[in-house]
Amino acid sequence: SLSTYWIALGVIGYFYSLEQKNVAYQSGIAFIIGLCVGLAFSFRFQAGLFGVSFALLYVLEGRWKAFLFFVGGSLICLGLYGLYDVSMGRPFLGSALGYFEFNIMQSGASQWGVQPWHRYITSLNRFFTLPLALWILIGALLSLHPAIFSKSKKLWLIILPFWLVHNLIGHKEDRFIFPVLPWIVVLAVYGWSYWIRNRKLKTKVMLSAAYFLVMTVSVIYGYAHSSWKHHGFFTTEMAKLSKKKQLESLAVFGTLHSGSYFYLHQNIPLFHFSDLNHAKKERFKEKVGREFKSVIALNHSGKIPESLLPENIQCVLDAKMKRLYHCELSK
Q: Could you count the other beta carbons within 10 Å of the beta carbon of residue 48?
């Protein structure tokens, strides 16, 4: 998401402003940071949590002029986004308020699944591979050492509201936490740099060798994992089917590996049924029979019962059993 880049500019700008003595210059940078947060919010509403972090930092530092300029920059972007909502026939900031009401107040996001509290900690493994993830996590924890926490605490304060709020929400996806990943790496570098600073040469050599080993294992691990072709059958068949010009729609039964949907050749309608209750089945049959000539039904949980299939479904891709059923398009 582009919000990650705007937040990165904001974080860099904030730490750059700490080195400036001129109050007016600091305030100008704070205004730009406010614009960055506002733009990030426009691309992904959760990015507004970084605004809370920056505002809290300015207040704790007593930089009230910079705080006001930061708020001003943020409000300009929010105002423009609100006017965009109005131009699209929605209430002022209606899309953001609706998003919050549905996903948070009504727990609407939970319909896509609820994950355990540690999902975002284990996501480091999926982003970096397990050996490197452990190295990064240990380094980030080292940055909490009292001797250097006075310097690292500001970066911790920037990322913690975003991280903690996402952990409190039941529905979790790895991509949601992406904006904080670069700064966890920075904290890890800071922590390891402190730890090794006053060590003996032998210890530094051993640590460097250990880091080289971790990187080597991570590269091998990453290569091996990609060679396993996770969801490989599913993705390969989707690539084949994407070349069939007569394909008009896609019906998904069960869980879909979203990356595979990317292989379809057009922006075709997507029907998603995570549970096959009677009402959804009938609604699906009615819509298919009325609007579409050909449909592909995909399934990750076993063969779809024959009684469930409308007559004009031409293909069932069963990823679990790695078989194709009723498939004319794949020939």
A: 20
Q: Tell me how far apart the alpha carbons of residues 285 and 263 are, in angstroms, rounded to a whole number.
A: 25
For 276, the 3-state DSSP assignment is coil
Q: Of 245, 236, 139, 248, whose CA–CA distance to 184 is shortest?
A: 139
d(CA 20, CA 152): 19
Closest CA to 96 of 114, 80, 73, 111: 80
Residue 6's CB is within 10 A of a number of other CB atoms, namely 25
pTM of the model: 0.71
Strand partners, 251: 271, 297
If one counts every other C-beta atom within 10 angstroms of the C-beta of residue 140, the result is 24
pLDDT in tens, 149-203: 988 999 999 999 999 998 888 888 888 898 999 999 999 999 999 988 878 888 8
Tokens for 287, please give them.
Answer: 């819509």
Q: Each residue of 152-191: b (16+ CB within 10 Å) or e?
A: bebbbebbebbbeebbebebbbbebbebbbebbbbbbebb
